[in-house]
Amino acid sequence: ACFGSTAILPASRRASHFSPQHSDAAARDQKPAGAMNSRLTTYQADNPMFFNMDSEYGPDKSIVRVSLDKLHGRFGFAYRSRGVSANEGLVITGVVPEGALDMWNEASDADYDITVGDVVISVNDVTCALGAKALVQEMQHCDRCVMTIKKKGPRWHMFGVTAECMEKMNHAKEQGMTLEFIATNKVEEDHIIEEQRSLSWTQFSLIALAVVVPYAVLVAGFSDMGVGLAFYSFFAPKIMNLGGNFIIFMGSIIFLALYLGDWQAWKSKAQKVGSALLLIYTFCLGAVIKCRFYPYAPLVITLFHMPVFLGIVRTSSLKQVQREYFYKGVFSATGTISAILLVVWILWMCVDAWGGNNMWNDATKARLVEKSANMYTETRVKFETIDCEPRTRSLVYDWDCSEDPSPFDFDIVYGTRVESECRFTAADKGVRAKQCGTIKSIWFLVWLSPFIAAVCGFVVSAFCFLNGVLIDLSDTTRAEKVLKQFILMVAVMLLSMWVSASIAGASMRLTGTLMAFLGAGIVAMSIWAYMEVGQRTIASTLSNSRIMLSIVAIVTSDWARAMFVICFNVMLPSMLVVEAMRQKVRKMRRATESVDCLTDEAYRVLDKVSNWNWASIFMKVNWLVILYWTLSIGVAKVTYVFLSWLNGMFAENVPFTSVVIIFFFIGYTMFLLPPVPGIPVYITSGIIIASQAKHTALGFYGGIGLAIGVSFVLKLAAVIGQYMIGFYMGRSVKIQQLVSVDKVFTRSIERILLQRGLDFAKVSVLVGGPDWPTSVLCGILRLNICQCLLGTVPVIFVSSPCVLAGAFMAGPRDDLTDGEKSMWGALANSALALSALGQLASGILAMYYIEKTMHEHQEELSKPRPEHEHVLMLTIKERDYNLCYLEGIEWGCLSLCWRMVMLLSVSLMLFCLFLFNLMDELCFKSFQVKDKIDTSAEEGGLGVDRSDFGGAVISLVQPFGWLALGLFAVASTLHFLFVWHAARQARALLREKVSRGEVGDAGEATAANVATAAVAAASDELPPGDDDGFAPADDDVDGVATILGRRGPSSAAAEDLGADLAKVTVDI
């Protein structure tokens, strides 16, 4: 809100004195305190203003009291509230040139100037304790105001060296001298370029050494070419894992001590660096000692030293080298050394003179297993077994971890292992497979580690080539394009490595390893890009990026805050305890004079979060947990049981043709249900159709082909059904409003889907988007259904791997051995990985093309459309209710009873989320689509009759799970009770405001409000004034015109549109 001219002083100027034309601050510094010059006297003749000097106010105090008369109906400054609940007054954000406050500053001494950042704490007799809105209303209704202002803004431009320099520059300009300002960074870059344009051999040797040292440590210490398996075997005993836990605990203590001791404020650079290295390497040492459980830790830590060493070399010995030549040196060194390492590894595998043939074959596996014997011995597993007493023993590779592990335990008879009558349960088999997979992953990584190091080196080399050689920092557009291409290349490379690892060793538990390398790579490259591309280039690129603006809006929304509460709920109270300890340490060190219990940083955070609408955030926390339960528990688990039950029913002598027809209609029905995803349906088609076809003339592989075709036709038929749902639902204005047909995001999707044929962006959206929402949205938008079907055709490349995975789970025969089941299971995992890769890639491309369309056609997509007038009118009609709803659930407005209801509800929701996530095995039995419900629980089934679907669902839940579900039911009941109360409170508040005349009736709307909502709806922006919670009514039309002039059509056209829409409001 601004009571001044339409020309508002930019915040970057801080005050009118920043301009040389208005600056004579240094001259006024020489005047005695309290003196008023002739300009003030002249101005007082027509506009009485005075400065009240008494014992409480003055130049040596922090509070100024002024009396201002409105000039042309304005006081001449802009402001905003510091927080409605904080009641800290109004912060001055701009001074209008030639306004009342600007003339005060021109006439007064520098000691009494009012500048940007100062805070208005009272107006006449109204203080900030009554709230910011009361101050605004008082200024609106008075022509002369006595304001008390606290001097909080910067005043470096009024006193001292800065003021003297400004005075000298003004004097020089008056004498005709021309001043040229040169950016410091440009001078530094020119200096660097003149100093050194290339690398010397000594400097190149330093770069090569930074690459060679990590490679040498990895090959010698953690690979099969060195003593890798001996290293892992040494740390295999359980006592070593306990030692690693203790060291990590000590690292946590060191981190807490550094934080409590204000490490970031230490003045000694040596102490800061030394303590930081101690902390980092304590954690690294603990992770390396625990390598038995985290086999990727030594590899990741060692390879991470390569970019660290390169960064140290860059900031020390090569600081004066131009960045382009430094990157060329790193590109050459890493690429050459990585190629040499790869060649050496290949020779080591192929040349017999290097210890024999080390190719990946059965002989190599046997050798690795022999070297890993100590790890198998130190891994002890407790087996429950069936009809036998529990037994804890070490793993034996030939018995437990071979390609065909025995389903029975063994006894030792005369020194020989003999199969016993104790049969392993499904849980025993799962634990055994997990432990065997961990050890397999260790010796596989030890054998593969030189190749991993070479690949990482090639990635760093490519990064340096793109980031240092191709990028021109003066062209931020090109920089953004190249960085996007590089990110896409790295993502594809890492996803390809993940798929390759799934194919090569799906039973080796390599997911954690690949995720660790992915995380380390992202951290390293992000830091390097920030340091070497430069903060200026990144800031210049992101300041003009609509993506970042959208991300900021998302991150600061209540939904993002709700996710923050879900992720860090337990840590938030503990952080307050840590901050209290930190404040206590500061008092003991006499580093603060504050008597508060918490640090100033903590109070600033609390001040910010105190303005959050916590009731709204807690409600969204509950909705997110309910959504998670619906998709991951309620739908997913029941769907698996249903599909397994369906497969069992089909096995009871049902004709094959009937099986296909029945499955088609059941799958079609499941596709029409919103929560059911498509992937389980595809997998089930492979399980049912392929497994049934192997008993017919079609055969197993013919059944796979038929299942692929049926799934493809089923998807197209489901698209038609979902489209028709959206077509008829789209007749409702409320449905159109819910899907935001008048917003830029939805219109961007519409513009993409209007493309004819197999357009790449169109295919990405139709294939990469969720099944039900995407097709239903096409129906709501009334798109061409034939073109939608054509764009959905490439979905066969995503559905086919899922069908293959289901068929491989079933297997070609009923009498497969455990080894054959393991092989087909690996193929199934590989097919699922391929499907996930396609789905992820299409989803990423869909978001990319949607954002690209939003960016390129923002102005066109923001314009109001006649066909969306009904949606606009409904939005206007509900706006007052929505504002009353938010006002009614303000935490300060809720009674103690309803606060307790909400707190109890969100606490139970978070506790249930913890149970469902971390204790899933205690809540529910492990069950997949491939399992059978009529087998015993020990063998992985549910132990019920094949036809008893209801009993299967009930038996899926374990006793502890019923407790968790009961708590979830109580939490949901309390949540919906609060939602009901909030809706009732909003209706009551709306009726009260209507009776007081604060808002219009349900069908009334002003032209200005309609025009504002039209532009806000199209451009995804809030109307003016919502930032601080209020806006002066007199400025509504001006605010509308400002927004319309910046974002949409002309003000007059928008107001005409608003008037036309207002006429039909009551009818709507």
Task: Write up this protein.
- With 1068 residues, the protein is mainly α.
- 64% of the residues lie in helices and 5% in strands.
- It contains 43 helices and 11 strands.
- Strands 1, 2, 3, 4, 5, 6 and 7 form a 7-stranded antiparallel β-sheet that branches. A two-stranded antiparallel ribbon has the order 8-9. The protein has a two-stranded antiparallel ribbon with strand order 10-11.
- α7 (201-222) packs antiparallel against α16 (426-470), α36 crosses α41 (1007-1019) and α41 (1007-1019) runs parallel beside α42 (1036-1047).
- The longest helix is centred in the middle third of the chain and has 45 residues, at 426-470.
Helicity, as a percent range: 55-70%
Alpha-beta content class: mainly alpha
Distance between the termini: 33 Å
Strand content: 5-15%
The pLDDT mean sits at 75
If helices are DSSP runs of H or I spanning 4 or more residues, what is the number of helices? Answer: 43
Key attributes of the depicted protein:
1068 residues, mainly alpha, seven-stranded antiparallel beta sheet, two-stranded antiparallel sheet, disordered C terminus
List strands and helices in order, with pairings.
Blueprint: E1 2-3, H1 25-29, H2 38-46, E2 63-69, E3 77-81, E4 90-95, H3 100-107, E5 119-123, E6 126-127, H4 132-140, E7 144-150, H5 160-174, H6 184-195, H7 201-222, H8 228-234, H9 238-260, H10 269-289, H11 297-315, H12 323-350, H13 362-371, H14 373-378, E8 380-383, E9 391-394, H15 397-401, E10 408-413, E11 416-423, H16 426-470, H17 476-504, H18 511-533, H19 535-543, H20 546-555, H21 558-568, H22 571-588, H23 600-609, H24 614-650, H25 656-671, H26 679-693, H27 699-729, H28 733-738, H29 744-753, H30 760-768, H31 771-780, H32 785-792, H33 796-810, H34 818-856, H35 858-862, H36 869-888, H37 896-918, H38 920-923, H39 949-956, H40 959-996, H41 1007-1019, H42 1036-1047, H43 1051-1063
Antiparallel strand pairs: 1-3, 2-7, 3-4, 4-5, 5-6, 5-7, 8-9, 10-11
